[in-house]
Amino acid sequence: VKYVIPVLENISSYCYKQLKSKEYPDIAKARADSEIETAGYEMIDAVAFCDFLVDESTYDKDYAKLQSFKLKMEQAVSNAVIYTRSTKAAAEKENLCGISICHVYSDLLSLDSLLEIHKMLGICNNYDKYLKYYANIMAGGQVYFAKENKQLYKKTKWYNPKMSYTNKEYSKYFPSEKDIRFKLDKSGSPYLEFNYTKIRFCKDVLLGMMAYDSDSGKAVYFGQNRAYYISAYVGDYNKLLGDREGRVNIDFDGYWLAVNGTIMPVYNVATAIDDNEMANVFYIPCLYNGYTARLYVLWDNVEDPDGYFLYWMPEGDDGRYSMCYEVTSGDVFEPLYTVYDENTGEFTTETLANKKIRLTTKTKVSWEKVDNVNLFISLEDYFGNEYQTSTMGYSNGQFIID
User: Fold this and answer.
1) What is the 3-state secondary structure (H, E, C) of 83-129?
2) 111 contacts: CB under 8 Å, gap ≥ 6
3) In 209, 222, 357, 397, which residue has its Cα 20 to 30 A from 373's Cα atom?
4) What DSSP character marks residue 49?
5) How is 167-217 classified by DSSP, letter by letter?
6) Residue in 312, 318, 305 with CA at minimum distance from that of residue 334
7) Is the CB of residue 11 less than 8 Å from the CB of residue 69?
8) pLDDT tens digits, the chain, 402 residues: what are they?
9) Short-list 255, 254, 237, 259, CA closest to 246
């Protein structure tokens, strides 16, 4: 600890000055890029610290200083470690092992506890100062859940509204309604056009689809699918899909994932791209053998052009999906669709008639043609904000914008 804490304090002092200089967006993006999965403890907010420095230096003008911090941190960690053990697989993978630190994001209310621990240990003065500033910027309206929790934030020891940015300062980095409308080019192809300052902070851009179910006549939301067309490079400062002005092309080919010809509600989980090869993992919300569950599907554009089932995961008592089970012949699942009531304006989750499927060796995952559907784009940025465009029609291979 005596090697690492002094370097952490110096870095925290630098990041604190950045926040005061209104450079929060770059830090927020670096935090998101270096966020780590804490298996079994999803509510613990943590970052891989050396990765955080690398990601921060990607966007920061003072590249040399941050690289210097990174080298000092790596040396400090090396000095602090007396014994290390790793599997052969871990040793062969770069950045698989390292040091992580708590960095509040999804659970701002936990910051008081972290500060109390630091106080007891007598460490991390600059680090605490930085985290409190970061949390106040978020609590001031930066994230979509800030308004809901503001009354709770006011009861914490760290809350100080004077540290928040103004609405005008926030708006520099957030798309407005006019930023997320569909447009058509001369060939009739749709696209979104953004101010580059705003689009470079988008983490995900997902394509959603709504249509009327032919059996029930209900308006159904079919999830967010084929995200790889759009989000593969959005958010990467150096690899923005489109041009430097932030134009993002919407490459929808009129197909949607189906099982035995039945169009499924699907949600993109992960996308991996390597040269011209691409793989996607989706899940289908469903009742699986009577359990509320998610059925996972793998699709890639080389070995599995249609896709196949990976496994299914039942919802636990705590609302999490953590146990994987094999998909076997004879299992039965019913897709859970999100249905829109046009009279009340409310959404409900339900099964629909004639959609139950019993799995056999002949069950087929495929991409099926859809028509007379409405499309929209959902965006999530590195700050946690979520946006949706107005809808765009798709019929007979043509895109329609009102």
Assistant:
1) CCCCCHHHHHCCCCCCCEEECCCCCHHHHHHHHHHHHHHCCCHHHHH
2) 104, 131, 132, 135, 156, 158
3) 357
4) H
5) HHHHHTTS--GGGG--EE-TTS-EEEE--HHHHTTEEEEEEEEEEE-TTT-
6) 312
7) yes
8) 677 888 888 888 988 988 888 777 778 878 877 887 554 444 568 887 777 766 555 555 666 777 777 788 778 777 777 766 655 544 444 444 567 788 888 788 889 999 999 888 888 899 999 999 999 888 876 655 455 577 788 889 999 988 877 767 777 766 666 667 788 888 888 887 766 666 666 777 778 899 999 888 899 999 886 543 443 334 443 333 444 455 677 778 899 999 999 999 998 877 665 656 667 788 999 999 999 999 999 887 666 667 889 999 999 887 778 789 999 999 999 999 999 998 888 999 999 999 999 999 999 999 899 999 999 887 777 766 777 778 899 999 999 987
9) 237
Separation between Cα atoms, residue 300 and residue 340, nearest integer Å: 31
**Is the distance from CB of 4 to CB of 80 less than 8 angstroms?**
yes
Q: How far apart are alpha carbons 236 and 144 in whole angstroms?
A: 22
Residue recorded with tokens 């092309």: 249
Beta strands, E only, 174-329 = 183-184, 190-193, 202-212, 219-225, 247-249, 255-259, 262-263, 266-274, 277-288, 291-300, 308-314
The phi and psi torsions of 194 (rounded to 5 degrees) equal -120, 160
Q: What does the block give as tokens for 218?
A: 């209900």
Residue with tokens 């040399």: 64
Residue appearing with tokens 């759009």: 230
Strands 183-184 and 291-300: unpaired
CB count in 10 Å sphere of residue 283: 21
The separation between the first and the last C-alpha atoms of the chain, rounded to the nearest angstrom, is: 61
Query: Phi-psi category of 163—alpha, beta or left, where left has phi over 0 and alpha has psi -120 to 50?
Result: alpha
**Rounded alpha-carbon distances, angstroms, from residue 298 to 103, 265, 271:** 32, 15, 10
Neighbours of 240 (CB within 10 A): 20
Q: With beta carbons less than 8 A apart as the criterion, state whether 50 and 73 touch.
A: yes
Angle at 235 between CA 11 and CA 106, to 5 degrees: 60
